[in-house]
Design goal:
Blueprint lengths: L2 H7 L6 E7 L6 H10 L7 E7 L7 E7 L2 H4 L2 H5 L5 E7 L14 E5 L2 E8 L5 H10 L10 H12 L5 H9 L7 E6 L2 E6 L8 E5 L2 E5 L2 H6 L3 E5 L5 E5 L3 E5 L11 E2 L1 H6 L5 E2 L2 E2 H15 L6 E4 L4 H12 L7 E3 L15 H8 E3 L1 H4 L3 E6 L6 H12 L4 E6 L21 H4 L2 H8 L3 E4 L6 H4 L4 E2 L1 H4 L11 H7 L1
Parallel strand pairs: 14-23, 17-20, 20-21, 21-22
Antiparallel strand pairs: 1-4, 1-10, 2-3, 2-4, 5-6, 6-7, 7-8, 8-12, 9-10, 9-11, 12-13, 15-16, 18-19
Helix pairs in contact: 6-7, 10-11, 12-14
Length: 478
């Protein structure tokens, strides 16, 4: 997500990881590039690719930079990344500033060889681990918690027979949310935190194996989805043995806690995570909203992009026609002047335009995924009414944000959350809606079936002990 997007929505996204290993020895940089392209929605601040040739000297070649995937890589740059094992990353910063040295993958050279690591998530004990490692001689080059993981793996590798065992020992020390893709000289390793907060899946195309944050990235490289990595599982992919699994850190399924916001907002609509289709879950969310908050209206519309499918679900359940009321400008890139809070009105108008003939004289149901500060929603309602909408009834496919997230979702601090300081009726008045309805907490489970999930940003019930301070700011000061 760009600084512009962040300012318009008020909500930050996560990161995306992708790995490719062609056991026949063919170069994989292009596949990693296209996989990252499919994950661009998860992070638009920086990206990178690191490759190694498992048949040659096993040197790691890498390139990373600020911006979108196509800003950083071109055909010539990709052709220079020779290697059959590659790790890629797209980043949205939740811990550590937006600077090129914080871009991933991180490449660590040590006595056993070279590791490249891509990480999606946030650690809740990163500060104490960083201080502990610093006391024993580690010199950190970045301000991201991913470097803590990389150092731990490298250090543990000195005392373990295999790289995957080093990853396992590092996992026993880190706490929080993570999906990891790691390349060692001859292996690609994937690991997922025991709660399953961050998604990770496996794919295959001929003799090339893939690891990806979302299944849409595997489809983008013409791969076949194999399965999701289990929460707590470590998978090791080698030329000799293919996919091997270590499930010794898998916890009881009742304690698992997948991020519910993957299904509401983060994941791409065509992805499937842990057996649940994102499109289907958003349709169900819209239907639940229609059941909870019916209204007499003429048209249901969704705010692009994540509100569109929920709006279709609302339409199907309510019988109110579904329409496209907005044109989204897809060409607002990272070079746009970073707006201030006072400039949000103009930002929304640059990002979205209302189609007047669609809404004029109509009572509109407007479906969106969340209200964070309320500014954006208020501006969109003003635009709809200025275009001639008679009424605007707002339906939100998530419950109100009341608590910060410590696991990689950039939910602002409590004082910036409009629902933390205002009642639902006060919010309705502030944004100028004719009615307002949020997803009911107890109906979230209908979106994901039997999967256990984390809804701490709505309920304050975290799956693990969390810091009392904003760890992203504390980490940046270290």
């Amino acid at each position: 997500m760009s600084e512009f997007e962040k300012a318009v929505t008020g909500l930050g996204e996560e990161c995306g990881v992708f790995g490719a290993y062609d056991v026949d020895g063919h170069d994989v940089a292009a596949s990693v590039y296209y996989g990252l392209f499919a994950l661009q929605h998860r992070g638009q601040e920086s990206c990178g690719i690191a490759v190694t040739d498992t048949y040659g000297k096993r040197n790691v070649l890498s390139k990373k930079g600020l911006g979108h995937v196509d800003d950083v890589f071109d055909e010539e740059g990709l052709s220079e990344l020779k290697g059959n094992l590659g790790v890629g990353h797209v980043r949205y910063s939740t811990a550590g500033a937006t600077r090129v040295e914080n871009a991933m993958p991180l490449v660590i050279n040590y006595v056993k060889g070279t590791l490249a690591i891509a990480h999606n998530g946030n650690l809740v004990n990163a500060i104490e681990l960083r201080e502990e490692l610093s006391q024993t001689g580690a010199i950190f080059q970045t301000t991201i918690d991913s470097e803590v993981i990389a150092y731990l793996i490298a250090r543990e590798r000195l005392h373990t027979p295999t790289a995957e065992e080093a990853v396992k020992r590092a996992m026993q020390k880190i706490k929080g949310a993570y999906a990891l893709v790691v390349s060692s000289p001859r292996k690609m390793i994937g690991a997922r935190d025991p709660f399953g907060l961050k998604p990770l899946c496996i794919g295959k195309r001929d003799n090339t194996y893939f690891l990806a944050s979302e299944s849409c990235a595997i489809a983008a490289v013409d791969g076949e989805f194999v399965r999701d990595v289990l929460p707590g599982e470590i998978v090791t992919i080698t030329r000799k043995h293919g996919i091997q699994s270590d499930t010794s850190m898998v916890i009881d399924s009742e304690k698992q806690a997948r991020c519910i916001f993957e299904y509401i907002y983060f994941a791409r609509t065509d992805s499937t995570i842990d057996g649940v289709g994102v499109y289907h879950s958003r349709i169900l969310a819209g239907k639940a909203l229609a059941e909870s908050y019916p209204v007499d209206a003429d048209l249901v519309v969704g705010v692009p992009d994540s509100g569109l499918v929920a709006a279709k679900g609302y339409s199907e359940q309510s019988g109110i026609p579904y329409g496209m009321a907005f044109h989204k400008n897809s060409y607002v890139g990272r070079t746009f002047i970073k707006p201030k809070q006072s400039e949000r009105v103009s930002c929304v108008k640059i990002k979205l335009n209302v189609i007047p003939e669609v809404v004029k004289g109509k009572r509109i149901v407007m479906v969106d995924d969340s209200i964070v500060r309320g500014t954006t929603c208020a501006n969109i309602i003003k635009m709809l009414k200025k275009a001639g909408a008679k009424e605007v009834h707002v339906r939100i496919s998530s419950p109100p944000f009341l608590h910060p997230c410590f696991f990689g979702t950039d939910v602002p601090s409590n004082e910036q959350l409009i629902a933390h300081t205002h009642t639902q009726e006060e919010i309705r008045q502030l944004i100028g809606a004719d009615s307002l309805g949020y997803m009911e907490i107890e109906k979230l489970k209908d979106m994901v079936g039997d999967l256990k999930y984390c809804d701490a940003c709505f309920t304050g019930k975290y799956p693990m002990e969390v810091p009392k301070e904003d760890i992203s700011q504390a980490f940046e000061q270290n």
